[in-house]
Design a protein that fits this description.
alpha+beta; 4-stranded antiparallel sheet; 378 residues; 9-stranded mixed sheet
Length: 378
């Protein structure tokens, strides 16, 4: 794209910044915990209807609109997840101080859902056709135990048609071209239970679970490929003087490499099956599985994203993360994840994001769609 055209995009985008910030605040004010995104989905659909689109909400809760006149051929899929890590009873107090907008979930991921709508507004104002149809998806199930079910459903819906996928998430300047794979298990230990004094010596599910966790903590994992594990929650027991009949823990395992993740999972499985102790039973409940994948730095879409950032005076940073892009990346579909502005304190009540950089973020997305769709049409 010639510099003059890039400057034109910047001009259009600069006039969209405040509108996107306002949309982000309105979207953020609608609660959307993972698994309970219906209210936000309906709100996003209403915003799209106001703009003349005919959104569709699928069985899992994703909101879809298709922009283009072809109806056939490859499509460019844009994903922005609606769900947040905050419970339904979290006070959603949104405030602005100067150029900073605060709110639980404002950057992860309300501003990106707003940017998705803002992008459609920009393209419509410019009367800009794309070489292939765009499918914009406000999707569910990206956070926590959502297991990327919204992204899975969207990619499956357009199986055989999808030519590339851009996920909108994270911070401006970061290009996620490596998908961190993960496994999430619930480890369950059960036993007979009993009174702490009268039945002393009966195996305790809590003691058995503790042995398992201690052994897992001793697993050695490689620095490269980066591989990690974490026990994030423990539950069990009924009282201080009861030998626990049941205990459980949530285990998160991650790696940028499929084989390394498999090795870690096998080590953890062997520990779970062997270390609890005699008289106790163990079970593994699979709660989530996010596939790993990557796109080369020579990938034309990765190069386009990096070149656009450089043209905007922003140094591109190539990162590994777990995002909606994991799904298409694992299927070898050209895909990446980019952010629209700078986000701080994500997943906390003090989450906030900068408003002015939204302009550059919109330019990046618009250019990726315009020039990326041309790549797909070749």
């Amino acid at each position: 794209m010639a510099q003059s055209n890039l400057n034109y995009l910047r001009g259009v985008a600069s006039n969209s910044v405040e509108a996107v910030a306002t949309l982000a605040a309105r979207i953020c004010a609608v609660p959307a915990p993972t698994g309970s995104e219906q209210q936000r989905a309906e709100f996003v659909a209403s915003l799209l209807r106001e703009r003349g689109y005919a959104p569709e909400i699928d069985a899992v809760g994703n909101v879809y609109v298709r922009r283009g006149k072809r109806g056939i051929g490859p499509v460019l899929l844009l994903l922005a997840h609606m769900d947040t890590v905050f419970s339904l009873d979290t006070p959603l107090y949104i405030r602005r101080t100067g150029d900073i907008l605060y709110g639980p979930g404002i950057g992860d991921n309300s501003v990106h859902v707003a940017a998705l709508i803002g992008l459609l507004d920009m393209l419509d104002r410019m009367e800009q056709d794309t070489a292939v149809d765009l499918v914009a998806v406000a999707n569910v199930g990206e956070e926590g135990l959502g297991n990327l079910r919204g992204a899975r459903a969207a990619v499956e819906r357009y199986a055989g048609e999808v030519g590339a996928v851009f996920a909108l998430d994270g911070s401006l300047g970061r290009i996620t071209n490596t998908a961190v794979g993960s496994l999430r298990w619930r480890i369950i230990v059960s036993g007979p239970g009993g009174h702490s004094f009268a039945s002393f010596g009966t195996p305790s599910a809590i003691h058995g679970l503790a042995k398992i966790i201690a052994a897992i903590a001793e697993i050695e994992v490689p620095d490269e490929p980066r591989t990690t594990f974490n026990v994030g929650m423990i539950e069990g027991g009924t009282s201080v003087n009861t030998i626990a009949p049941l205990a459980s823990a949530l285990l998160d395992m991650r790696s940028t490499d499929v084989a390394a993740l498999d090795r870690l999972a096998n080590q953890a499985r062997n520990i779970i099956q062997r270390r609890a102790g005699e008289g106790l039973q163990t079970e593994i409940e699979v709660l989530g599985e996010r596939p790993a994948g990557s796109r080369s730095l020579s990938d034309p879409f990765v190069q386009l994203a990096a070149r656009t950032l450089s043209d905007l005076g922003i140094e591109p940073k190539f990162v590994a993360a777990s995002t909606d892009a994991n799904i298409p990346m694992s299927l070898n579909i050209p895909s990446l994840c980019i952010g629209v502005t700078y986000v701080e304190r994500a997943h906390t009540l003090e989450e906030h994001m900068a408003v002015p950089p939204i302009g550059d973020g919109l330019v990046q997305i618009a250019r990726l769609c315009i020039e990326g769709s041309a790549l797909l049409a070749r």
